[in-house]
# Entry
Amino acid sequence: MRAFKIIFLLSVSYLLASCASTPSVEGESESQKLQAQEFMMSTGDIVRFKDSSLEFLKIVNDSRCPKGAQCVTDGSATLSFMYLTPNSAESFSLDTAENSVHTFENIQIGLMSFDPLPSEGSILSPEEFTARVIVAEEGALEDVTIIDVRTEGEYNNSHYSGAVNLPVDEIADRISELNLDKDETFIVYCRSGNRAGKAKEELEAMGYTNVINGVSEDSLNKLMD
# Structure
C-alpha cells in the first residue's frame, strides 16, 4: 500500500510539472528556415532560427518624443539584445535612430520599429512595448521584391529604389501581377508601418507565408544599405 501511494504521488507530481507554464518562444518551429524573417519581440522574448537565437534583454533608454507632443527632436529608444550561437554569445544594442542594424559574420539584424510611442501622463511597463525585428542571412535581401503600399501620389513623391507600387486597397486584387510564389519572401512598406501591417494580414490570409513589414522608406534604407 505504501508503495502504491509513493507511485501515485510521483505520477501527480509529473503531471503537474508537465502542465506548468513555460516562456513562449517564437520561431522554434521554423528553426531550420531563416533566409529572412520578421519577429515581434517584447522584453524577455527569445526567437530561434537555425542553430542560433536572439533574446530581447531590456530597454536601455527611451527618449522618444511622446505621442501628440511637440518636441525639438524625435529622440530615440535604445534596446539591448543577446545573439547566441553554439560557440558564442554576444550582447549588442540597437536604437530607433541611426544604429538600427547590427551585422554578424553572416547574419543581419535590423530594428524596424518600436511601439508604442511614450505617452505623456502615463507609464507603460517594458512588456507593453514591442520591437519589430528582421533577421536575415547574408544576401537574402539582395533580390527581394519590395512593395510600396501607399497611394500612387505618395509613391510618385518619393519611394524606395526599385519598389513597385500596389496601394493597400488594391493589393489583394493585384498581387498576382507580380507572380510571387506563396512561400517567397517579400517586403511591404508604407509611411509608418500601419498600412503595411494591413497589407501583410491580407496577403497572409491569401496564403503568402513570409511577408515582411518593412515599415517605411527610411527603415528600408537603413536595413538595405
About this structure: Residues 1-25 have pLDDT under 50 and may be disordered. Residues 2-19 form the longest helix (18 residues).
